[in-house]
User: Fold this.
Amino acid sequence: MNMTKITKSIVSSIVLSAASISSAVMAMDLVMATDEENRSVLQTTIAMRTDNQWNVSAYDGSNLAMVDDIRARAVTSTLPNAAQIPGATIRRWAALGFINNLGASAYSGSWQTRLPKTIQEDISFQDNVFAVPTQIHRSNWMWMNDSVLHNDTQSINPPRTWASFFELLNNNATGRQANIITVNDPSQNALILEALILGLKGPEFYQKTFIEFDYTVLKSEDMVDVFKILEKLRPMLARPGYDDWQSASQALIQGKGQILFAGDWIKPLFVDKDGALPESIVCEPLPEASATFLYNLNSVVLFKETNDKSSDELAQLLFTEQLLTDLNLREGSIPARLDISPWGFDRCAVRAMREFRSSHTINTLQPSLAAGMAAPEGVQKSVYEAVNAFITDNSMTAEEGTKSLAKAIRVAIYKI
Assistant:
């Protein structure tokens, strides 16, 4: 028996085993709220441009469900190395000491000059940066099938005031039917309410209601005015809705309904097999909201299990123009960076980029409560319940709806 060969074989096995163990140890997990196709593209890009091995996984579920899942993993000490989370939760994770400080990455990448002040505040805690802003979704979009705006002899403009919106519904000059598509999702009516508040009453009033939770403002006559518009919409919003957004989006494309209120996260459901947005789909801000921008921010945080070198490497990669462009093109969203070219984005995204930047300048860029940016989950859920109770109860007056919302928010705040 050749002992030299046996020894070499044993040594080789040990070396290979050690290499395998080392590789397993180096593998890190990044959880993203995306589909399988986008996950694959992201996996390839990260693998090509980092020294570390990252396993990118796609989370199939809502933002709220993802937050609950990550929180449960924190309890069992099975957190991933990195995850994409809603912006409103960043400060709480930072305050609890679960996520890494990305200040060095932000400084070297000049994030402070490339992001709106509002977004910088969203990703910071006690003057330190703790997240990479990857995607901006606009919440106050109104999607329309253009058949409602045209006939063989006449065309009309999309409604930009609530007066012209109700005229479109009740006395359409084109003679075409105009119906609002509803979805069995508790966030839809809250989305409409927040757009009404910001569009009709302005950013200061919105801040007082959905960020500062000023009880006096919440039950004011100005809020009653908002609920009076919601009351006029109620007969259409209370109709039986589609079970999911996929069905609702197809109904809009097929002309079974003509108007759908939804954020631009729904856009991937509209695109054809070539990834193009159909010409028949019109995107407009909700009436009175053209100078405002309600947003939801998706960001990636690096948990404490990840060393500083790996955190810095991934953070810098995620903030690059190429990766942000690729990611947002596929998701229907826009980059948070102000210096990224709109080239290659569809017409709705180009408009979103333009109005994101202008609203940042005139201070009408505001976080969406409906999408989970402006308030803790407990307050968000209470708003959902209050506004949906108003929509389903035809006997509730605007004054009663206002009081119900104010009370629901007050109770939710006390529970936090």
